[in-house]
């Protein structure tokens, strides 16, 4: 009786397993037909069928592939990355780095790169000398050997995950995955093309059947070639973006800030759209270049774009707060620092950095407590400065980018350029060249951009009004100084003319006195040389020449002057 019961239970178990397998295959067949329609609502229904199939058989490769491709078609790239995050190279390297030392991490990084990029035809270099080995490396080699038989089933992960990483801004990971998938697909195509007949190259569509005997042995050749062409185009775009970014970062490190800005502008203003996180990173680097070049308003605008695309970007908040402090706009700086403090507290509360595990950050979790302590001290200092009344001393000259004492034309030109670049109506234009990871985030991104650009525009207009007022005051003061200088010059000229006239009068008086003396001398000589009557007066004798000169200067030359004559008898 016991044997009979055991036999019945085994039969029921076998029947149950066969029933589940048929159900999973039916779900997959229906999902394929729905995906073939290329309608988003039908593909969403296919996702529900695939989820039901995976609930029964979680590791069924066909269901996983269809689900990943359906998510990719619906542009739900984050879900693809979450689904296949164990295959992202940078995430695997980060996990290895967390469990190994810093010296071993660099070697592990190089080994992973070689393993992912090296061709399968290359033979490893054998070294018969004794070496210490890592248990994790041995485990990976053993698992790789065990999984060689299922490499054919997992080829789709490289291409699907690589495309998803590209749209998520993980450019290095996308390039590694796409190159590896392209190489594996090409090798599989070469192997399978040997057994294909000539008629098989004309196959355009092969219907899918739930029975494995009726299913095609492999993907049709034209499908492989089409996938190869799309992968090649995607790889070309990725390499272009990475080359541009590498050139921009090299120029930034070399101190060529204008050149770095030019390269980053080629990326963010390009004809072809770029991923959201990659653009946010480029805007952040361009903000650093603008800041180093002294263009404060441009740097703040790029920080605003970065925070609109990634509100949890720690570097953008730190940079913008520092820029506001540089121009002594302390309330805005304090606002950003308070926001950063809330972000640090949420990180410590969740015990992880914001976002999914595959998202890249420029800070590590272990650095957050120290940054939070320094940030708290900084916030207290700013609050003390605000309490002391240091609020209205904003450096608008540095904000607009003009020198102190600039002319009206220089200010108007700088203000016109800033107004055209940072006008709130045009602030959302860069979103058209941005490939958002989730299309549902478009409105929230636009709202953040409009708000931040409006605040910057108002600050620029306030700075223009303030600087223009200073220039007008300086012009009025300059006019007063010129007027006073002109009056002083006129007074000096009048004094000089009076002095010249006085000199002329003195010279004329001196010449008249000399003539008078000459005449007196002549008269004396005549008196002494001739004999005259004693009763006749013989000349004029002046006993005081100074009195005569004063009388001449007071009387003028055209009027008669009474003169007192004194005569002497000879």
From TrEMBL:
SMART domains: TPR. SUPFAM superfamilies: Chaperone J-domain (SSF46565), TPR-like (SSF48452). Residues 507-527 are annotated as: Disordered. InterPro entries: DnaJ_domain, J_dom_sf, TPR-like_helical_dom_sf, TPR_rpt. This is J domain-containing protein.
